[in-house]
Amino acid sequence: MIRGGTGYNVIPDSSTMAGTYRAFSKKSFYALRKRIEEVIRGQAAVHRCSAEIDFFGKEHPTIPPTINDDRIFEQVQQVSSMIVGRENTKLTPTFMGSEDFAFYLEKVHPILEYVPAKPMI
Asked: What highest taxon heads this organism's lineage (predicted)?
């Protein structure tokens, strides 16, 4: 989202840009964050402007990537297969969901698993 000015043909004195960014690993997440800052500062300098960058800090903490522990994941997959059968356990592709459960995953080693439900026919 970009917000800057309210009139046609008028250069605003300031503008605000907001959005989200996500990654599949902590390393790429923080590299992306650094690159976002570099691009913003670089573009501001090219146009002889200044830029203030705020990733929300303590008020709205940045949610880290949700990454399951591989060892625990293997155990859960084995148990799930024993309970519902291997043919009924499906691995979904990696996706870019933003999940505050990631804060727990940084402290302990559970996994985030979606358990679907469907009517028995």
From this structure: Eukaryota
Q: How far apart are CA 31 and CA 65, in angstroms?
A: 13
Tokens at 70, concatenated? 């591989």
Residue type, 46: V
**Are 72 and 111 in contact, with CB atoms under 8 Å apart?**
yes
Question: What contacts 105, CB < 8 A, 6 or more positions away?
Answer: 66, 67, 68, 69, 111, 112
pTM summary value: 0.68
Q: Which of 22, 53, 26, 28 is nearest to 39 (CA)?
A: 53
Question: pLDDT tens across 37-79, in order?
Answer: 999 999 999 999 999 998 876 677 778 888 888 888 889 889 9
User: Checking DSSP bridges between strand 2-3 and strand 16-17, what pairing results, if any?
Assistant: antiparallel
